[in-house]
Structure formats: C-alpha cells, structure tokens
Write a sequence for this structure.
C-alpha cells in the first residue's frame, strides 16, 4: 500500500528509494556492530571501569553500544585520573583501570598489570576561542605555566592577566604535558586545578583569558588549539610525527582476564572499536 | 526529669527494649569515635615520614617534595571568615526585619522563604555559581579568573544565612513577652526594645547561630570545590583562587593510595574533625554557662 | 539621635531583607530560565521508550533516569538503616539515660552532627578499602554510600526523636504509670504516637540531607555512567553528582542544558519530599487530635 502511494509521485518515490537505502545501510551497520558485540552474547554481570578521563568518551560510547544490545550487562564508568585508574585496578576495586600514561615498571611489577594500549593521543594547549594569541613557542609556554609571564600582552595578546589551568598530580595528561611540553619545568601554584580533561575544556571555554591543556580527542570548536612551535596539535600532526607531545592511552587489567573484561578490551581493538576511537578524535592503535 | 519508673533489678529478658535502645546509642557513639580513630590510624604513616609541624606549615608542591597543607588551612580560613563577615550582618538584619519591623504578612512570607532556602542543595548553589556569579566577578574586577575566595564566600553566605536567621529568630522569640510588655508600658521605643531587651536576651542564641553557621561553612565541600578554583598557592587577595581542606580531600582522592599525597587527606580529615569538635565543645560550654547564669538569676 | 538611629536600623534591616530575597530570587530566576526549556521526557529517558526503560528492558544511556533512581534508592536505604538507630538512641536519651550519661552521649552526637560530610565520605571510603583486603567483593558501591549517608543523617534523627519525647508533658507519663503501664509500654503506646509529629520533622530533615549530599557519595561509589543498579554492590549514578559533573565538564550546550535540567529536578525532588513529609506530619497530628479528643 505504501508502495502504491509512493508510486504516484516521483518525488515520493525518490524518497522511498533513499529511505530504503538508508535503512539498508543502517541494517548493514547494525549487522556489523552485532558481529563485533557477538562476543558479549550470553554474558551477564558488572564491568567496572575507572581512571583516565581522556578515555571516557570512548568508554561511554562502547559501553552504550554493549549495554543496549545486552541489557543484562552493566558497565560502570568512573573518572578519577590515571593515578586512580592504575591503583584501583591494582587493588582489585575495578576490572579495567585506564591511564593516559604508561604505568611505571614498579606499578606493573607490584600489581601484575597487563597493559592494553588501544589508542595514541596528543596533549594540546588550548585557549579561549576569542584569544588573539593562538601560537606559542615552548619557551613562552613554559614561562606562562611557571608564572613568569602573567599578562597576555607579553605574548602579543590583550592587556589581561593570564589564568592558568592545570590538573591534579595524579593526572596522566598533566604528567605527559609536564614532561614533553614543559620539559619538567615547574607549574605555578596559582594555577586553577581541575579534575578531568572535560573540566579543563569547559573551564577554558568559559574564560576568555585562560590557558590549559587537553587530550587531542577533546579538541573542538568550543576552544582554540594553540600552535606550538609552529605545529598545530591535530591527529594528522601526531600521525606524521610532527607534533611531539604524544602518549598512548592504556587500559590496564590485573593479570590476563577473561569474560566481560576480555570481551570489552577485544572490542576496543575490533573494527567497530577502532571506528569509535577514530570518531572520538583519537588514533586507534594495533594490539 | 522526674523519676517515675525505678531501676528494675531483674530484666524480664535479655532483649529488654531498654538494652536495645542502649545498644543503638552505643553503636552511634562508637561510629562517631571510630571516624576519628580511623583517620588517625591511616594518617599515622604520614606523620612518621613527615613531621606534623612541617605538614601544618609547609607549602604544597609534591614535585619538590613539599606536602604541607598550610595553604589549604589559609584558604579555608579566608573563605569561611569572609562568608561569615557577609552572612552575619545580613542574617541579623533579616532576623530583625522578620521579628520586629516587617508587617505581619511580609514577615511570614520572608520566614517561609528563609525556611525554603535551607532546603536548597549545596551543589545547586555551586552550579549556578559557576555559570552566573563567576563570570560576573571576573568582569567586575577585570582581574583573575572569577574563581576565587570572593565568589565562594558570596555563595557560602547565601548557604549559611538561612540557618543563622532561623536560630536568631528562635532566640528572639524565646525572650519572655513580659519583658517586652514591661518595656512597652514604660514607653520604650523599638530601638530600646532591640538594644536593651532583644539583643542582650538573645546573645546566646546569636553566638549559637554564628557557631553553627561557622561549622556549616567549614564543612562545606561543593561550593569551594566548584567555584574557588583549587589553586595550591597561599592566597594574597580576595580575588585569588584557593583550595580548602575539604576540596583537597575531594581532589586528591584520585591519587595513588600509597603516595604521600593521598595520606595528606587524612591529615585534612583530622584537622576538620578537630576543628568542628572544638566548635561543638564551645557551643556546649556556652549553653552550660548560659543555663547556669539564668539559673542563678532566677534564684 | 534616636531618630537617626531608628532610621538607620530601619534602612539596614530592609536592605538586608532586600539583598537576601534579591539574591535568592536572582538565583531561582536564573535556574528556572536556564533549566525549564530542558525539562521533558527526553531529559529523563533520553529517547528510550518509557515502559522499556522502567522495566529495565532497555538501558537509558542519555537520560537522567538512572541518576534519579540512584538518588531515590540512596535516600531509602540510608533512611532504613539510620532509622532504627536514630529512634533507639533518641528514645534512650530521652527516657532512660541518667543525667551524666545523657550529657556525654548527646555531646558525642553533637560532634557527629558537626563532622563535615566529606570526612564521613572519607571514612566510608577508607573503611571499604580496608575491608576490601579481606572481602574482595566489597568495593565502593551503593551499599557503602547508603551506609555513609545513614551515618550522616543519624544525629538529625536522634536529636529530633529526643526533643520530641522530652517536650511531652510529664503528666502523660504519670497518667500512664498510674494506669499500671510499665515504661516500655508507655513509650510504645503513649509517648511515641504523641511524639510522632516531631519525629517526622526529623525524618524530613534527614531525607533532605541524604538527597542533596554530594561529598559523601562522590567518595563512596557514585560514577558518571552505570545505568540503574541491579544490586547493592553495584556502582550507581545520582542526581547531585550528575549536576557536579556537568558543571565542571559539559562538552556542549546540550549537556549544559541537561545539567540545568538535572538541577531543577533535584530541587523539585527536594521540594516534593519536603511537602510530602509535611503532609504526613499534618495528617499524623490530625489523627492524634482526633483520637484524643
């Protein structure tokens, strides 16, 4: 009957074809997804994840797909930062502990951690969209973060005090940024401290005179990414090796695990998993 | 209270309700004390590595091996005292308005509003603070980030005022009507009523309100965590960002359990516990003395 | 001079009233204008069919439903745990304790009432970590949060029970004793019903406190995303934490709107609970009046 009505008008017919195509695509898509989530079939229980906040967008997306396909599986995601992720998985409080830095040899030994690096990521400097200063040298950056440069005027901006945002000491993002961008120079204690990548971005996007740093996966139009030593932080620049403030994103388990934990980590390395990782602005890594 | 039922020597059964009630009480007491014991127990390893004086006086810079919580004590003091400085006159004014000056209808309306305000969740104050107050403060003073002592204190003042106003009002209305009527009969003015009867009579109540509000401000986590900026430097101006002891606990929770950073939060816990305990004890003394003096007077 | 002082006092008091009402009004208007547009079924169910969501057939991943249910469960569990202890201790203090022990116990409970909620959260967290070494299934979860919250609201329950009982006239006790009732009977059948209204107001306070507290739960098991908890040992979501999370890290305008929506829902939830408890209290009082006159 629908066909009948559609046939009457050619434009409706076009729509119908388009619709059919779309639904076919959707079907195809979900079929592909179903295939990659097949490992979860018949599994039940709770999977607890915590730690690095750069991981959260991917974790949320993946768990949403799994939980919607299999309502008997419950996945809980907490932030806390890399330090918390490593510690909590080590103590057995969670099943997967994420970290935005490689766990130290000491940590790996002590807890018997197994590392799964499923993505590469860069840490980019961000300022407010309206900030005139959108390029800095590493030297200037270090001076700003150490508190030596206090006014945007000194780096070619407006005559306003610079608000520096940083992360708490347990953050993997802070750790990588401090080592690779600040060359382990001191970070001023006047810096505002936030607890996650998301909080950093939200804070900087709402303060015209702020500067901070986030996982490249978090970069979007709400903030401006700062060109560092002539290189704009982006996935391409990281891939080409031009942008050097890079790190791996790890999901750590205590020993080799099976069941839900294994299926979840396998999913991150599957085709669908890699697509989600790329969609969230990160570079998928091979096992 | 008059003794009506004497102590029974033989209890009819072990499960006599009296013992159940006593057990409930003892559980509560043990839990209260064990909070402190636990903090001390978990904080002890820290004190063996790091002397208590260093901990209380040093700056916070884990990169350089400094783990002092002194800046956070300063931050807490700054925010709490500024918020009291704002909230105390505000609350006193409101209590006077409601009790003495406003027309009955308006007074009742104000009283209702104040009661309603006590029910507003702290996190909502913080939420609105971030998106409304912080940008305003940043633009007004065109200095700093807006996440500062001032913003946090303004929000805290809004949080603690209702409690204070209610305690003030209660103590105002506890003043014997006979005193007021006596003054009226003598032709006293409203000012005399306030200055010579109400305020002196409600002195204990006013101090009680102040101490209770102080405890509330001291113990609040969310407002400071959300709008004070959490910087680890020692504050020099009202527009500086600070971290309070409570916010420090919330932030460093994420750290490695074995690290010294993590153990400092037990020090913060102990400081907060002792601080509020001192407040509670002084309230107790205040009321004890008050009861004694009013007893003496009535003799 | 007197005139000037009176005038100044007048101005000061009215100004204070204006500032307070103005500040609170601005706060409410801002919250309402920002939050009202966000309200709707989508905010709560995130596009999932309502029936499916409530029957746990489908998972609500973009809505507030798990957070709302988490908060309600927290309130319920905390209250159920705290109530027996609160009532028991309140009754003990009011009816049984001697002068000395009463003074000691109530000092301790005043202490507990003063302990900052984050310290209670820290206690819950460290106790869990401590116990986890022996009982590995025990991790920060709904149960731990509820227990910590119970400890937080305990002093409110004790205090209100105690005062409600102490405020009853001695004649009640005397009459009951004269009729041959022992103390336990008197408490159960005479004093407690009479004190119900006062006890209920303590429960109202406790509910409000448990619903709004963020510091305790953020240390003891609340997470960003978990769905509706299936057991006491699961992580969970809760409204106040959701609001905190959105405030600090919304990633787009829509999430910010959801944050405002959540704030409004929490505020209405608190208002609703208060009204409900108020109605119950009124009804209880009315029933008592009906019974005794």
């Amino acid at each position: 009957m629908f066909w009948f009505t559609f046939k009457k008008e050619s434009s409706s017919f076009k729509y119908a074809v388009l619709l059919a195509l779309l639904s076919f695509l959707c079907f195809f898509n979900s079929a592909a997804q179903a295939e990659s989530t097949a490992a979860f079939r018949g599994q039940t229980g709770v999977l607890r994840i915590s730690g690095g906040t750069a991981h959260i967008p991917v974790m949320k997306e993946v768990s949403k797909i799994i939980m919607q396909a299999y309502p008997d599986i419950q996945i809980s995601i907490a932030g806390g930062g890399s330090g918390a992720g490593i510690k909590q998985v080590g103590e057995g409080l969670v099943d997967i502990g994420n970290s935005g830095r490689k766990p130290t040899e000491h940590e790996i030994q002590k807890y018997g951690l197994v590392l799964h690096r499923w993505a590469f990521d860069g840490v980019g400097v961000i300022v407010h969209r309206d900030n005139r200063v959108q390029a800095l040298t590493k030297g200037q950056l270090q001076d700003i973060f150490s508190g030596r440069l206090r006014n945007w005027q000194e780096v070619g901006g407006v005559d306003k005090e610079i608000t520096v945002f940083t992360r708490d000491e347990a953050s993997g993002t802070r750790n990588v940024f401090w080592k690779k961008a600040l060359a382990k120079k001191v970070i001023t204690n006047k810096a505002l401290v936030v607890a996650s990548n998301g909080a950093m971005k939200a804070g900087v996007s709402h303060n015209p005179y702020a500067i901070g740093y986030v996982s490249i996966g978090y970069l979007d139009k709400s903030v401006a990414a700062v060109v560092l030593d002539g290189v704009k932080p982006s996935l391409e620049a990281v891939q080409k090796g031009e942008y050097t403030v890079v790190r791996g994103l790890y999901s750590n388990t205590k020993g080799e695990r099976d069941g839900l934990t294994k299926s979840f980590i396998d999913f991150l390395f599957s085709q669908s998993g890699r697509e989600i990782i790329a969609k969230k602005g990160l570079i998928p890594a091979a096992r | 209270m008059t003794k009506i039922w004497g102590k029974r020597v033989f209890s009819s059964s072990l499960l006599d309700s009296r013992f159940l009630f006593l057990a409930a009480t003892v559980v509560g007491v043990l839990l209260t004390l064990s909070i402190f014991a636990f903090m001390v127990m978990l904080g002890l390893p820290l004190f063996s590595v790091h002397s208590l004086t260093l901990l209380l006086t040093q700056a916070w810079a884990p990169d350089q091996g400094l783990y002092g919580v002194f800046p956070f004590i300063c931050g807490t003091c700054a925010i709490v005292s500024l918020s009291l400085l704002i909230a105390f006159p505000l609350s006193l004014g409101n209590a006077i308005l409601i009790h003495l000056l406003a027309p009955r209808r308006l007074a009742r309306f104000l009283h209702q509003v104040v009661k309603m305000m006590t029910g507003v969740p702290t996190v909502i104050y913080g939420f609105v603070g971030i998106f409304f107050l912080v940008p305003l403060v940043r633009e007004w003073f065109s200095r700093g980030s807006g996440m500062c002592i001032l913003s946090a204190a303004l929000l805290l003042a809004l949080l603690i005022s209702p409690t204070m106003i209610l305690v003030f009002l209660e103590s105002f209305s506890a003043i014997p009507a006979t005193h007021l009527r006596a003054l009226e009969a003598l032709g006293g003015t409203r000012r005399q009523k306030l200055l010579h009867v109400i305020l002196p009579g409600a002195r204990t109540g006013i101090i009680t309100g102040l101490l209770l509000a102080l405890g509330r401000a001291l113990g609040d986590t969310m407002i400071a965590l959300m709008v004070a900026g959490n910087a680890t430097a020692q504050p020099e101006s009202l527009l500086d960002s600070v971290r309070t002891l409570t916010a420090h606990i919330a932030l460093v929770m994420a750290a490695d359990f074995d690290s010294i950073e993590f153990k400092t939060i037990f020090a913060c816990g102990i400081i907060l516990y002792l601080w509020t305990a001192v407040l509670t004890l002084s309230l107790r003394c205040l009321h004890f003395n008050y009861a004694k003096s009013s007893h003496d007077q009535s003799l | 001079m007197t005139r000037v002082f009176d005038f100044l006092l007048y101005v000061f008091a009215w100004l204070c009233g204006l500032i307070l009402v103005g500040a609170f009004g601005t706060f409410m208007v801002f919250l309402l204008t920002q939050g009202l547009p966000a309200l709707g079924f989508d905010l709560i169910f995130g596009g999932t069919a309502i029936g499916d969501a409530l029957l746990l057939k489908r998972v609500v991943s973009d809505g507030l439903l798990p957070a709302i249910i988490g908060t309600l469960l927290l309130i319920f569990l905390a209250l159920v745990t705290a109530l027996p202890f609160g009532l028991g201790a309140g009754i003990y203090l009011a009816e049984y304790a001697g002068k000395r022990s009463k003074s000691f116990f109530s000092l301790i409970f005043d202490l507990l009432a003063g302990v900052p909620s984050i310290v209670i959260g820290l206690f819950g967290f460290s106790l869990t970590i401590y116990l986890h070494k022996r009982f590995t299934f025990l991790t920060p979860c709904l149960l731990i949060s509820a227990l910590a919250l119970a400890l937080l609201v305990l002093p409110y329950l004790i205090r209100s029970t105690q005062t409600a009982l102490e405020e009853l006239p001695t004649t009640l006790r005397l009459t009951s004793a004269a009729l041959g009732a022992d103390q336990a009977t008197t408490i159960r059948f005479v004093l407690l019903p009479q004190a119900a209204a006062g006890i209920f107001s303590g429960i109202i306070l406790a509910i409000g406190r448990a619903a709004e507290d963020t510091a305790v739960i953020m240390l003891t098991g609340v997470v960003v995303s978990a769905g509706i908890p299936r057991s006491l040992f699961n992580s969970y979501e809760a409204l106040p934490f959701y609001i905190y999370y959105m405030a600090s890290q919304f990633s787009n305008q829509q999430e910010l709107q959801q944050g405002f929506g959540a704030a409004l829902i929490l505020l209405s939830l608190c208002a609703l609970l208060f009204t409900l408890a108020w109605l119950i209290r009124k009804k209880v009082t009315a029933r008592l009046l009906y019974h005794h006159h």
User: Anything to note?
Assistant: The radius of gyration of chain B is 24 Å.
